[in-house]
Amino acid sequence: MGERGFVSAAEGGARDTDWDGVRLHIVSGKGGTGKTTVAAALALALAAGGRKVLLVEVEGRQGIAQVFDLPPLPYEERKVAVAPGGGDVYALAIDPEEAMLDYLEMFYGMKRMGKALTRMGVVDFATTIAPGLRDVLVTGKTSEAVRRRDKSGGRTYDAVVMDAPPTGRIARFLNVFDEVAGLARVGPVKNHADLVRGVLSSPETAVHFVTLLEEMPVQETLDGIAELRETRLPVGGVFVNMVRAEGLPGPVLDAAYDGRFDPAELALGLKAAGLADGAADASAIAEALAEEVREHARRTELEKRERSELESALVPLYDLPLLPDGADLAGLYELADALRAQGAA
């Protein structure tokens, strides 16, 4: 069992949403695993049924705009999608320089002076010599959105999803307190960092990982989970992306993997179906198909081993299908439906 007592989402059976009470969902993953796409799909799934969700990007890549097929996003919260059954997804592309100006205004009333400092390059200088400050600024902006309340006293957003840095940097990125310990021991910077740390380490936060059923992404995911546990940051679930359907019965795959698949039987079937001209043609086609079957069986066996490695981490696993037409807008809604069906949102 994992931190929250969950097992694999594939085990089936009726259950409630796994992450009830979680308001900040941080999504990390190795490059190329579809991290931004999964974060966007999770935001749609969480917003379904009339909720309001903010999707935040912190790396300056404009990945959210690309996923939703929109122009580059400004530094402001903007509605980007309507979720199934109503509900709205807003997006924010955080710019560290603008976040610094917000910080100066919030704690020192110096936004106008901050703009002058920006022109002088002081902001870039500060975040270059103290890179931890940049992470405090972008995580702080996200944490503020989590805590924010509207005029009626209710939460502005039902949930916030952060498209976070890759797995190899996620623990350091989120470990705000250690990053700024050398910058300030008292005063607004430290108070701000402590506030952010309180949000990130609370039960209202979960750090999820996106992976493929391949050796390197799986190993990075396991390493990332271990790092978070060492630093006492809240581990969420693992989204297994681009899962292929097996396509062939288990006994056939087992036979192909063990070298027991007989192309001669396939050749007879091809001739009987009229799909080959003569025995030689049927044999050649059958041998080519048999090699495809063997390769599929080897890949399936590898994926089973990698899934077993992931299960050893004792966190919830969620399968997301390989989209035949790519991760377009329709595909995002398909992934959101898959997440909801498995209890992730």
Provide an overview of this structure:
- The protein has helices at 35-47, 63-67, 96-108, 111-120, 122-129, 131-147, 167-174, 176-180, 188-200, 215-230, 250-257, 263-272, 278-311, 329-341, and strands at residues 24-29, 52-57, 78-82, 88-93, 159-163, 205-211, 235-243, 317-321.
- The protein contains 14 helices and eight strands.
- It is an alpha/beta fold.
- Helices cover 50% and strands 14% of the residues.
- It folds into two domains: 9-244 and 322-337, Rossmann fold (3-Layer(aba) Sandwich); 247-315.
- The chain has an eight-stranded mixed beta sheet with strand order 3-4-2-5-1-6-7-8, with helices on both faces.
- Helix 1 (35-47) crosses helix 14 (329-341) and helix 3 (96-108) packs across helix 6 (131-147).
- Residues 1-15 have low confidence and may be disordered.
- A hairpin with a 5-residue loop joins strand 3 (78-82) and strand 4 (88-93).
Task: Show the helix and strand layout.
Blueprint: E1 24-29, H1 35-47, E2 52-57, H2 63-67, E3 78-82, E4 88-93, H3 96-108, H4 111-120, H5 122-129, H6 131-147, E5 159-163, H7 167-174, H8 176-180, H9 188-200, E6 205-211, H10 215-230, E7 235-243, H11 250-257, H12 263-272, H13 278-311, E8 317-321, H14 329-341
Parallel strand pairs: 1-5, 1-6, 2-4, 2-5, 6-7, 7-8
Antiparallel strand pairs: 3-4
